[in-house]
Specification:
The complex is a heterodimer. By secondary structure, chain A is an alpha+beta fold. Chain A is about 65% helix and about 15% strand. Chain A has a two-stranded antiparallel sheet. In chain B, strand 3 (about 65-70) and strand 4 (about 75-80) form a beta hairpin. Classes of the chains: A alpha+beta, B alpha+beta.
């Protein structure tokens, strides 16, 4: 009986650890980005870390802050 | 429907949109869901954002819409004619739906300001009939 309880506890711990790792990896993968769509139908995606995105992202953060204040 | 009413309808229809402002071609505020000071700040930041994006993308292409996605939320810009609507949402919005709602809002606002058609002049024949004694 005691062995079974220990096993259940271990399984619960392993499950929650796996869930936490999965969630943190997923969050880390979701990076900031800028998607620009043009009238000619073309599209440009600027990923976080690119020089173009680094000028646009602070302004977006400013807009979000202003809207939530 | 005026621009303020179009924005009110937008925030009622789309629960994802937290704040929105409509700007004219010269950057002046047409309508906003925020108070005056915050609307002005948002308008200035939007104008700066547009300028930066134009610089990054090159001047040969005209911007139609954009989404800046961050962990804290997203910023959307949609242009229709001379007007621009800027809106903010929470993280991971339904992008297509937000763009659709913003375009509809801009069109509603623009449609309201088209002049009403002038009443047609009565035709000569009709006039003659009404003028004739019974």
């Amino acid at each position: 009986m005691r062995r079974r309880k220990v096993l259940t506890g271990l399984l619960l711990f392993a499950g929650s650890l796996a869930g936490t790792i999965f969630y943190r990896r997923r969050s880390a993968a979701r990076r900031d980005r800028v998607d620009v769509y043009f009238e000619d139908g073309s599209m440009l995606s600027l990923a976080e870390g690119s020089p173009e995105a680094s000028t646009v992202l602070p302004l977006a953060h400013r807009i979000l802050e202003t809207a939530r204040r | 429907m005026d621009a303020a009413q179009a924005l009110a309808d937008l925030t009622e229809i789309s629960s994802q949109i937290q704040a929105a402002v409509i700007l004219d071609g010269d950057g002046s505020i047409v309508a906003s869901t925020l108070d005056d000071s915050r609307a002005r700040e948002l308008a200035e930041a939007t104008q700066e954002l547009l300028a930066k994006v134009r610089t990054s993308a090159g001047s040969d292409r005209e911007l139609a819409q954009l989404e800046v996605s961050t962990a804290a939320g997203s910023v959307f810009l949609v242009r229709d004619g001379s007007r621009t609507i800027a809106a903010t949402t929470g993280p991971e919005p339904t992008v297509g739906l937000v763009f659709y709602d913003l375009k509809s809002c801009l069109r509603s606002a623009a449609g309201a300001e088209k002049p009403a058609p002038k009443p047609r002049a009565r035709r000569q024949k009709e006039k003659a009939e009404t003028d004739a004694p019974a």
